[in-house]
């Protein structure tokens, strides 16, 4: 094992992230690639204001960071540069640190979602409902736009033209919008019986239900879709793809 000065540190920035996917994924990746000088840790902070201190404490070794809920937007104020795509999405989930200590933000959720969604799309998939309006939903919307799929956000307190409320989800809307993407945390372990409040009885085999949650691998949202014959997909591949993209960015 090399000395401390050779250590390359990568970190996940978030709040209450002990369960995090990233740490497990990269720790295994470093073992598989025999990168013994690489280490992945969690920066579990209660406020984004604590970030500069964390960076300062690790400044000689820190090479890159992932960012998760709830800091994908708040982190903008702490970056020196932001990639065009991340700026357009309005969320950063990957940060590369230059040799001079400059921080540049990227969004790899876009890549991960697109890569995992595209193989499932069929000709009739022309409209999508995005459940939730947080950071991840912005990346989802960006991808749908790129693919020429019209979408609406579904929110508990809708604002503006692009958003509708859960109460607006009529039979007609569910029939017209044949992609439904869950970007809410509803149904995540341990609360696995929870699910977004949509009229599942109107879901058909023409639908594609995609859940950003990966734990459990089949949420109640997905189960209910599967019962109706819909195509279903969880968020694991999206996470793996966005992690691989982050790895490429850090090693550029």
UniProtKB/TrEMBL annotation:
UniProt-listed CDD domains: NAD_bind_Shikimate_DH
Annotated Shikimate dehydrogenase substrate binding N-terminal domain residues: 12-95
Keyword Amino-acid biosynthesis: yes
Gene Ontology biological process terms, A to Z: aromatic amino acid family biosynthetic process; chorismate biosynthetic process; shikimate metabolic process
UniProt keyword annotations, A-Z: Amino-acid biosynthesis, Aromatic amino acid biosynthesis, Oxidoreductase
GO MF annotation list: NADP binding; shikimate 3-dehydrogenase (NADP+) activity
InterPro entries from the UniProt entry: Aminoacid_DH-like_N_sf (IPR046346), NAD(P)-bd_dom_sf (IPR036291), Shikimate_DH-bd_N (IPR013708), Shikimate_DH_fam (IPR022893)
Pfam family, one: Shikimate_dh_N
A GO CC term assigned to this protein in UniProt: cytosol
Signal peptide: none
Pathway of action: Metabolic intermediate biosynthesis; chorismate biosynthesis; chorismate from D-erythrose 4-phosphate and phosphoenolpyruvate: step 4/7
Organism: Tenacibaculum aiptasiae
Protein name from the UniProt record: Shikimate dehydrogenase
């Amino acid at each position: 094992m090399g000395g401390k000065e050779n250590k390359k540190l990568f970190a996940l920035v978030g709040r209450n992230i002990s369960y995090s996917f990233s740490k497990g994924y990269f720790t295994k990746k470093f073992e598989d690639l025999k990168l013994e000088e690489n280490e992945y840790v969690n920066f579990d902070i209660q406020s984004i204001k604590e970030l500069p201190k964390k960076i300062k404490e690790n400044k000689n070794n820190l090479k890159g960071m992932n960012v998760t809920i709830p800091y994908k937007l708040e982190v903008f104020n702490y970056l020196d540069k932001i990639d065009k795509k991340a700026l357009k999405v309005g969320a950063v989930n990957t940060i590369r640190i230059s040799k001079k200590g400059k921080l540049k933000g990227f969004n790899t959720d876009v890549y991960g979602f697109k890569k995992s969604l595209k193989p499932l799309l069929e000709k009739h998939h022309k409209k999508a409902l995005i459940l939730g309006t947080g950071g991840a939903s912005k990346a989802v919307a960006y991808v749908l736009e790129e693919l020429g799929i019209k979408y609406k956000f579904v929110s508990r307190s809708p604002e503006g033209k692009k958003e509708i409320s859960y109460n607006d989800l009529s039979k007609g809307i569910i029939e017209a919008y044949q992609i439904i993407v869950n970007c809410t945390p509803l149904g995540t372990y341990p609360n696995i019986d929870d699910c977004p409040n949509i009229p599942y009885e109107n879901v058909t085999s023409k639908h594609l239900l995609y859940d950003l949650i990966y734990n459990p691998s089949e949420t109640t949202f997905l189960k209910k879709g599967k019962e109706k014959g819909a195509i279903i997909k969880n968020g694991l591949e999206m996470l793996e793809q966005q992690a691989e993209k982050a790895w490429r960015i850090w090693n550029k």
